[in-house]
Amino acid sequence: MGSPTISPSRAKRTIILKYRSNYPMNERQYGMYKLLIVDDEEIVREGLRDIVAYLQVQHIGQILTAKDGADALSIINIENPQIILTDLNMPVLDGIEMIKQLQGKHEHKIIVVSGYDDFHLVKESFKLGVRDYLLKPAHSEELLEVLDKIVRELRQEEQQYQKGESEKMLTQMERVSRSMNWVLQSAEQDEHALERIFAELGLSLPYPDTAAAILSPMHSASNAESLGADWDALLTRPDTNRLPMKLYSFYNRQNDLVVWINYDRLRDRSSAVKQVLEQFLGSTPELPVVIAVGMTVSAATGLALAYRSALEVLSYKLTAGPRSILLYDEILTREDRHIAPADLRILTEIIDMGRKDQVLPYIQKYFNDESLRRSTLDSIRSNYDAILQTIRWIPRQKQDFSAFEQSEQLRLYLISRILQTIEARQSLIRSYDMVEIAKKYVEEQLLGEINMAVIANYCNVSYAYFSKLFKESTGMNFQDYVTMQRMDYAKKALNGINVKICDVASALGYSNPKNFTRVFKSYCGMSPKEYQKLMK
């Protein structure tokens, strides 16, 4: 069964090891129990089976029958039923002798069925540990009452057992946690540290091969906490306990659940490893998790290598959808698939031409799920960097590649960056165009009234936005630019013969020549009259 679930919040400080041991008490599990009916009269045993089936007693599943004590012992050795309903007076091997032979070998809840004449046998059976009895003929109400009582006893015993196991496990946790924490920090320096820790903790590896599987939840810590509880629930299932393997698990520092799978790969023709992992996914349909299985190593050596290879496989999490199983052997078959320089030039053309409608098809072509599943992680990362370099995305704003958990996140990020680049380029072009429009307007209206609001309205932008844009583009505000252009015009005009200063001032819109003189002197460093003398 599984050990108590330890919350990931606690696991952040210590590494929590959890392991499944062989389930005692005749492999009783929460769920359905087997019932064996033993009677030498076929009509009686078949009648009892029909009654139990009709009553649909809760938690009783398979109903078996035997014709005498000897037949029952053979069935018990194979099926190991938890509940036995038996007659006492039978040929070949009677009920009392059968019960005696079960002493010390099996644990069962035994109910005897007997007539009044055999009540002395009932008394003897109680001395042998029989739980209850029914008088023939057994009525359905009495049978239902007795079976319900036995089922309640079974479930209470299981709950008490699990509680005891949980308490025992918790007392071992601190030692285990410290040991595994140390191992994960030192495994790279000491290849055999994990093997020694397994031996010191008394964790057996009875099968010749071991692999590490990392169950990595997506999105949140709450998923990690649910992960451990769901894994423990899987370990208590009878079909899991029957698999030929040992399972040990712990949380690593990333809140991923690491499972050591000890098995025999040569005899694993039914793919028990894949089976148990698929069972886990099937039992948790709502849990977003990716399972990475590393290389299989010798159970006695190479555990550190098994763990590191599982981490390597987990790095391909991006290429798998939620609820996927990634295998080490499959990763080895992947190829380097790089975007060709010619294809990167196509992206440049898409940006230059502002073809927003072509961005999604372009990214889908090189980062679709099928392509990602066939590519090495290095080539995917290289293509990611090549795209960002092509669009000249600002390095400090670049998303760390390892932060992507799903392929859709990667695609959406690249698409958004490309679209932002197109928008920025188009915005720059629009800004340049607006400044050129303003300059042309000033040139044409130099001798008339110039109003910046007219230009802003024409360009369909606000007055404040245009003012800021113009200054960022030219290095001066709009009014200073107008003044500069008018003073340049004035200098050319004052070079003429017999040109009056008042006429130039009037042409430029100055009603008072003194104002024109002040502005001209401020701009040229001399008065208009001094400038005329200088130019003669």
Automatic annotation (TrEMBL):
Superkingdom field: Bacteria
Pfam families listed in its UniProt record: GGDEF_2, HTH_18, Response_reg
GO BP annotation list: phosphorelay signal transduction system
MF-aspect GO terms: DNA-binding transcription factor activity; sequence-specific DNA binding
Compartments, as annotated in UniProt: Cytoplasm
Chief place of localization: cytoplasm
Response regulatory domain location: 34-151
PTM annotation (4-aspartylphosphate): residues: 87
PROSITE patterns given in the database record: HTH_ARAC_FAMILY_1 (PS00041), HTH_ARAC_FAMILY_2 (PS01124), RESPONSE_REGULATORY (PS50110)
Coiled-coil intervals, chain numbering: 140-167
InterPro entries: CdaR_GGDEF, CheY-like_superfamily, Homeodomain-like_sf, HptR, HTH_AraC, HTH_AraC-typ_CS, Sig_transdc_resp-reg_receiver, Tscrpt_reg_AraC-type_HTH
Gene Ontology CC annotation, any one: cytoplasm
Keywords for this protein: Coiled coil, Cytoplasm, DNA-binding, Phosphoprotein, Transcription, Transcription regulation, Two-component regulatory system
Domain (HTH araC/xylS-type) ranges: 436-534
Matches recorded under PANTHER family: HISTIDINE KINASE-RELATED (PTHR42713), TRANSCRIPTIONAL REGULATORY PROTEIN HPTR (PTHR42713:SF3)
Annotated protein name in UniProt: Response regulator
Species of provenance: Paenibacillus woosongensis
